[in-house]
Amino acid sequence: MVFNNAPIVFFDFDNTITCADVLGAVIERFSINDEWKPAEAAWRSGQIGSRECLEIQLKGVRVKREKLIRLITGIPIDHSFVKLLRYLNQNQIPFMIVSDSFSWLIRTVLNHHGIHDVPIFANRLEFDRDRLVPSFPFLSPDCSKCAHCKKIHLLKNAGKTRIYIGDGISDVCPAMEAEIVFAKGDLAQYLECKGRSYFPFQGLETVHDFFLNRFAI
After folding, report:
1. Is the pLDDT of residue 3 over 80?
2. Per the structure, how many domains does the chain have?
3. N or C: which end of the chain has fewer CB within 10 A?
4. How confident is the model at residue 167 (pLDDT cuts 50, 70, 90)?
5. What is the pLDDT of residues 92-103, one digit of tens each?
6. Please, which residues have CB within 8 angstroms of residue 170's CB and are 6 or more apart in sequence?
7. Structure-model confidence comparison of residues 117 and 78, the more confident one
8. What are phi and psi of 121, to 5 degrees?
9. 70 domain-assigned
């Protein structure tokens, strides 16, 4: 497959690079009540946006930094992620992680696995004793669904062949903007309903093989 425009790759994080939902594990393990559950249900049904959902969810979390680090660094990442990054770097294909989770969580997990210097665009997280305080530097006035509408990063790279890899509801906005989409889970179901073409994947080995065997630049 040959493209006239230079490629750029956008990775979701939870359940795409990682083998589990890191933020979901944090909320489920360290919440002091169950108020996060109806908030998540309301978000999934489209009644509230992810910013409101995340604020409600983190309001009930109580955890010290060291205990949080122990939990999230125990979550494995896709075994092909490092190999894929190596290929992209060797072929000078730019990439970034775009997430509606939090950059501190993402960076901590990646550093634990020896992965550094990956561009990350995500929400922010600060510690106030045993509380997690979120902030949202990438809020878009044009999107009421997302705390971080990842579509904005694809729009900044218009004119390139934009390749998006994701699995969830928060991936819908950027996936609909991308030229090529790798999808699984809720994202794949959404694209099926919309009649939007995509490449199904379960692990990043599929994406690596796509580049290795089909992507000529």
Report:
1. no
2. 1
3. N
4. very high
5. 999 999 999 999
6. 12, 50, 99, 100, 146, 148, 150
7. 78
8. -120, 115
9. no
199-200 vs 131-135, strand pairing mode: unpaired
CA-to-CA distance for 170 and 176, rounded, in angstroms?
11
Task: Give the residue from 175, 177, 179 showing the smallest Cα distance to 188.
Answer: 175
∠ at Cα 98 (44, 91), nearest 5°? Answer: 140
pLDDT tens-place string over residues 45-67: 989 999 999 999 999 999 999 99
Q: Who's near 87: CB < 8 A, 6+ residues apart?
A: 93, 208, 211, 212
d(CA 35, CA 102): 20
Read off the CATH number of the domain in which 103 is found.
3.40.50.1000
b/e per residue 179-196 (b: at least 16 CB within 10 A): ebbbbbebbbebbeeeeb
CB atoms within 10 A of CB 131: 13
Integer Cα distance of 41 and 78 in angstroms: 27
User: How far from chain centre, in Å, is Cα 19?
Assistant: 12
Residue 52 in any domain: the answer is no
| Rounded-to-integer distance, Cα 125 and Cα 104, Å | 6
Containing domain of residue 114, as a range? 7-19+77-214
Q: Taking the CA atoms of the chain, what radius of gyration do you get in angstroms?
A: 17
Which three-class secondary structure state does DSSP give residue 53? Answer: helix
Region at 172 (left for phi over 0; alpha for psi -120 to 50; beta for the rest)? alpha
